[in-house]
From TrEMBL:
Protein name (Swiss-Prot/TrEMBL): Phosphotransferase
Transcription regulation among keywords: no
Gene3D superfamilies found in the cross-reference section: 3.90.1200.10
Alphabetical UniProt keywords: Transferase
Segments passing through the bilayer: none
GO molecular function list: transferase activity
Lineage: superkingdom: Bacteria
Keyword Transferase in record: yes
Domain Aminoglycoside phosphotransferase, chain residue ranges per copy: 15-219
């Protein structure tokens, strides 16, 4: 990594599943580095959705490194997710034409419900599919897939967990970790955010701020995508032998109304 910035920089892994992210600092200068991040990052930076992109460098071996501002700030907590800045930033993302055009230029096509269901059924192992709650959840997805239709096709983050919302010390809110971004029904992001963080009694008001009406169709779509995302998470936690989290999300499906 020294060839990237020089010997005077202290570079440390930033964690994460891929091992492709790093922190770098030298004499008060601080950068967040990432190997082989998507060109999508430049548009996210220009739109003010992620911390500012400082530079991009391509190397002879084909690796591309990006450097962003390393901001002093904090992750949002679960209770922070009711902040109006969350709904306004998500609305900005979902209505951004530059973000949508860039994903299309990168070859992304619309993520359809039948594609999601096919992946779930292919990846869930035999032990999980014998679980009664998971069996019922798959049946729910299969029965309702004809009704999961939306005229809206937007850029979805697909993991609006509170850990991905960063508040800088100058009070600027960012949504980070865009590796899973897709073109899809906005109900993918809305469902996860509302089901996890917003009391159901406040959904109508929250969606009014976003610009949507809480219809039966939207309710069903949000629930469908939440069930699908939860099934994916359950299999992921099982593969990682993180059984406590796996059981927590199975219980979440069991309690979902």
């Amino acid at each position: 990594m020294e060839h990237l910035l020089g010997q005077d920089w202290e570079i440390t892994p930033a964690g994460g599943e891929t091992g492709e992210a790093f922190f770098a600092q030298n004499n008060g200068q601080k950068l967040f580095l990432k190997r082989n991040s998507s060109p999508f990052l430049a548009v996210l930076s220009a739109e003010g959705i992620v911390p500012k992109l400082v530079w991009t460098k391509r190397f002879e071996n084909g690796d591309v490194f990006t450097a962003q501002q390393w901001l002093i700030g904090r992750e949002f907590s679960q209770s922070d997710m009711t902040d109006d800045r969350v709904v306004m930033l998500l609305k900005k993302i979902h209505t951004s034409k530059p973000l949508l055009e860039m994903l299309k230029r990168l070859g992304k096509t619309t993520l359809m419900p039948n594609m999601i269901l096919a992946v779930i059924k292919a990846e869930l192992d035999e032990e999980l599919t014998s679980n009664e709650t998971i069996t019922k959840s798959i049946a729910f997805l299969e029965e309702n897939i004809p009704f999961i239709k939306s005229e809206e096709e937007v850029v979805c983050h697909c993991d609006v967990n509170h850990n991905n919302w960063l508040l800088s010390e100058d009070n600027q809110l960012y949504l980070i970790d865009w590796d899973g971004a897709m073109i899809a029904d906005p109900a993918i992001d809305l469902g996860m955010l509302l089901h996890w963080y917003i009391p159901k009694s406040e959904w109508t008001e929250w969606l009014e701020k976003y610009g949507f009406e809480l219809t039966d169709s939207l309710m069903l779509r949000m629930k469908w995508y939440v069930v699908a995302q939860t099934l994916n998470s359950i299999q992921w936690y099982k593969k990682k032998s993180r059984y406590h989290e796996m059981e927590k999300w199975i219980q979440f499906l069991n309690d979902l109304d």
